[in-house]
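Researcher: Please translate sequence to structure tokens.
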Amino acid sequence: MNTQEEQRARDALKCIDRDLDALDIQIAALQARQRSGTSLDQYIRVRDALLTEAQTILIQLDNSSGRLSPPPPQAGEG
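Model: Translation complete:
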């Protein structure tokens, strides 16, 4: 991975982090209202997908610098 690709990956992680923060707020709001069902499930699925994407990017960054990463978390963890 070259320097430009690494920067794009780091920028992507920043965007994912912001999206995760927004999703966490939405999930907490839905949980506070004791709502379950479609909306909450959708937010949680999107959050899990973003976490998986972030872990993939981190693994790529680590591999490009010779470090080893722990395995990605399973959906629903974290």
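Researcher: Any highlights?
Model: The CA atoms of residues 9 and 57 lie 6 Å apart.
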